[in-house]
Amino acid sequence: MNLPFAWPRNLAEAKPLQEQLARQVRQSPLPGAIRTVAGIDAAFVGDRIVAAATLFDYQTLEFLCSAHAVREVTFPYIPGYLSFREAPAFLAALEQLPSPPDLVIVDGQGIAHPRRLGIASFLGVLLGRPTIGSAKSRLVGEYVEPAMERGAWTPLVDRGEEVGAVLRTRSGIRPLFVSPGHLITLSEALAAVLHCTVRYRLPEPQRVADRLAAQLKRELPASC
DNA sequence: GCGACAG
DNA sequence: ATCTTGTCGC
């Protein structure tokens, strides 16, 4: 993907771009039927980041294919600015897929972010496609622990705004922090995450991407 | 100033 | 994210 802007190299350059992209996020109903769903995650090898993307049939959850990309890390990890560190690799991995997914589940937040532009929303705006933020821990917001049964959820509220939900994808297991990324509503995001979560805590596309990233990390040539 | 803080 | 083995529990 040819980015419509120069990639930020520091916080000063990232801030204005983040504000601009945040204004483009849309929490609207899914634009159409979902036939395929992708999952993305990353791992680090020295000063390089390896991103893995998976593609599944949404209806049957049948695995279709996977792809990956390796990039040099050019931005530090700063809470609230994760996109500028990981998005380049994620976009590259997604481009390697044979066809663009109808929905992307991202390991990280959607609008449950200080400025409403977590990495899932960031990618959604750049891709112009529906995305969901599926994080393993909280970045912002207050909530009450959801009930222990699978499917139970409580709202995640930040500064008086409902920015996502704390969802129990498996009974008795730590919940996930789900939030709309772009072009999707919270209820649709919750339904999609539950639909994709059958046996493990993470939605299948995200879980397999996670496993693949870890595998690539082990097999990649030692950087030095 | 202090504490919080996706991956 | 990553450093790190075994171990408790279903």
UniProtKB/TrEMBL annotation:
Main location group: cytoplasm
Residue runs in coiled coils: none
Keywords from the UniProt entry: Cytoplasm, DNA damage, DNA repair, Endonuclease, Hydrolase, Magnesium, Metal-binding, Nuclease
InterPro entries listed in its UniProt record: Endonuclease-V
Known cofactor(s): Mg(2+)
Residues that span the membrane, as ranges: none
GO molecular-function terms, A-Z: endonuclease activity
Residues binding Mg(2+): D41, D107
Gene3D superfamilies referenced in this protein's UniProt entry, alphabetically: archaeoglobus fulgidus dsm 4304 superfamily
Localization per record: Cytoplasm
Site positions for Interaction with target DNA: Y77
Record EC number: 3.1.21.7
Family statement drawn from the similarity comment of this UniProt entry: Belongs to the endonuclease V family.
PANTHER family, per database record: ENDONUCLEASE V
Name assigned to this protein: Endonuclease V
Organism of provenance: Geotalea uraniireducens
